[in-house]
Amino acid sequence: MNYIINPNCDTSFISGKGNQISIDKAIFELALKDSHLVIEKIVKDIPVDIFAILGMRNLSSFIGELFAISFAQKSGELFIKNPHQDGYPDFLLMDTIGKEILQKLSSQGELRDKSPFSPFINGGIEVKATCGSVPSPSELRKKGLTKPDMGDTRIKMLKGYDWKAHHRETNNLIGLLWDFDNKIPLIIAIFFSSNLTENDWGKIVTPKEGGGRTTSVSIMPRDGVRKMYNNWILVRDDQRYINFLNKYNKSSLISK
């Protein structure tokens, strides 16, 4: 699978301590390749359909987590996974200052506490994945179509995409868009933004009483999605996805 790379993308961000950090673009490419290698190995070596077992929501989270781990590994220890499951950001910046902070926390026996890691004072990056949205079953029936099933390529029916967060302070975000290709989930596009604000996230939606086990969530509106699109990193060299992304964002930034 071939990808086109944005030669003008900005992969820098400001740390929690005010230092400018630049991420090597090659890390995005290497993490993408490694993620796909793992997925291919899962398909080849595991005799059950892991993706179907996970379901669409958990599969999307899995792809985001897989890319994030690969990204940290390829960063030369510039980033490490947040020690706390509910910490923010997902991956902590381990420049000289970050290492000093972590060492101090370790010496004080605070590595299992949540407060130093939510948020982490030196900052880092978040990673979120989405497979986009398709019309409702009733809308599709009117067109003589059915909703895509697990493993079905979705690009012909995609009507939009966004990312979700548990709070509106999420920034330094790597956003992934993925789709199925021959029943295999693969990352289609990668975006990055270091200038997201609270206004780039929607109002926090809280679960209704008795409405299940969903957690509070903020959905990125079109303006935030457009900001991510404006700094696309990699996109699959496939005109279907290029056309969709450009059309959805009312622009033509992505081209071969």
Roughly how much helix do the residues carry, as a percent range?
25-40%
Task: Report strand order across the widest sheet.
Answer: 1-11-9-8-6-5-4
- Compressed to H and E, one letter per element, the order equals EEEHHEEHEHEEEEHEH
Strand content: 15-25%
Structural category: alpha+beta
For the termini, the CA-CA separation is 15 Å
How would you sum up the global shape?
Answer: globular
Number of domain modules: 1
Q: In angstroms, what is the radius of gyration?
A: 19 Å
The DSSP helix count reads 6
Mean pLDDT: 93
The largest sheet is: 7 strands, mixed
Unreliably modeled segments: none
Q: Let me know the number of strands.
A: 11
Topology at a glance:
Layout: E1 3-5, E2 12-14, E3 20-22, H1 25-45, H2 50-74, E4 79-81, E5 91-93, H3 96-107, E6 124-130, H4 137-142, E7 164-165, E8 173-181, E9 184-193, E10 218-219, H5 222-229, E11 232-236, H6 239-248
Parallel strand pairs: 6-8
Antiparallel strand pairs: 1-11, 2-3, 4-5, 5-6, 7-10, 8-9, 9-11
